[in-house]
Amino acid sequence: MAETEPGFTLIRGALLADPAKRRAAPADVLIEDGVIREVGAGLAAPAGATVVDGSGHIIMPGLINSHMHGHGGLARGQGDRWTLELLLAAAPWIGGNRSLQDKKLTTQICAAEMVLKGCTAAYDLYYEFPLPTADGMDAAAEAYAEVGMRAVLAPMVADRTMYEAIPGLHDALPGTLQAAVAKLRLRPPEETLTAIGTVLKNWRWASKDIRTAVAPTIPHHCSDTFMCGCAKLARDHGVGLHSHVGESKVQALVGIKRYGKTLTAHMGDLGLLGPEFTAAHAIWLDDDDMKRIRDAGGSLAHNAGSNMRLGNGLVRLRRALDIGVNVGIGTDGANCSDNQNMFEAMRYASMASKTQTPDPHHWASVEEIYNAATKGSARALGFKDIGAIAPGMKADIVFLGLETLNWIPHNWTVNQMVHAEDGTGVRHVMIGGRFVVRDGKLLTLDVAKLAREAEAARERLEALNAGMLDLYNKLEPIVASFCPGMAAQPYHVRQYVCDAPN
Hints:
The chain is an alpha/beta fold and about 500 residues long. The chain is built from 18 helices and 17 strands. The radius of gyration is 22 Å and the shape is globular.
């Protein structure tokens, strides 16, 4: 990541987005050593300050992606009509046989897209098979550092494959496929925990605001001992814990079948919920589940795009907000939601809220969506000094051009950010007071070179993973039959009539 810009910078004459106001109002922003010192009209420029002309632009805090997967960058556009379980079955095909350079490249693709579309920090659940490596996580961190983003990088881990985690699925496979998926088994839990510990202990990127966390991927893909081991590592190192909870109906049903309670209740009973805990997706959570996470001080990462793309359902966002749980917005992976566009993620979150009832009083407002994609996501990442343009906050600032069609005419700032802006209006992006995007061009990475490298990697990996594609084609009809059949069973999400938090 580019170092924080030293000295004073004054942004003069921009319109400052404020969800409390219908239209952004003129304001100057004074930045010292990458930190916002003052916000107001008519600020004087200190001696030697760099003055940035903000006229013709709306400025907003950089969007913050509360849940994505850097390993998904090289797997963009690989599937259609995939459920979550089909995506997991395809993982060895679309993500296998990657070199260390591939691991960096796939993350660069995601980071470049996020920054160019106004996102300045992300929570990346990064997967390596059969277990995380210090070199692989270091390569991903290097990708963020070179592009210029802040990030939380969490090794995504499990000690059970999907075929072991979903009751009956392994037995539904013929013997030849049972033998084939046996080769996909993960390393023993103690070996994986040791590998995570090595990554956390030797992390060298904290000074760049690229932090670590731990991500036991899906609760029932992890033994209780393994989950508790992940939580202990997170506590011992003072980092976050992030898991996919209630993403699909299959997950919710397996939780009841395996534990006799919801996945969230089980994690709560194991002592895994806390202020540093984030539950990704959180579609199949009842009110009690949401209250457990709220009372523990945790967060939800709402990924409306992939929730719809994979057919998993719609988060009860209005209910989550009314209960009082912190909500962030995420894109999920480019291998399942196709892009890393946080403006689109906000729009999807708003639209998904509006499809669940004809009563607009129960829809999420644009102000709530905007706050979730900034302050809510910042809290999920564990950052206290990003997500707003205010004194004491880091100068992560996005400039939107008022001459772009998304802003013609400019009627209601935050509404148009959520419903009209699609990333094409991003003109400049500043992180830590330093421009990483200027006039729509990424300054820290050669995108044309990135495209050439990605195409060469795609061609090479396609040949290397041909056998895994063949295996997927054999598994697909069974997984596509068994899992929807299981999901046809009833599962009731408990909720209460009263809208007031309790």
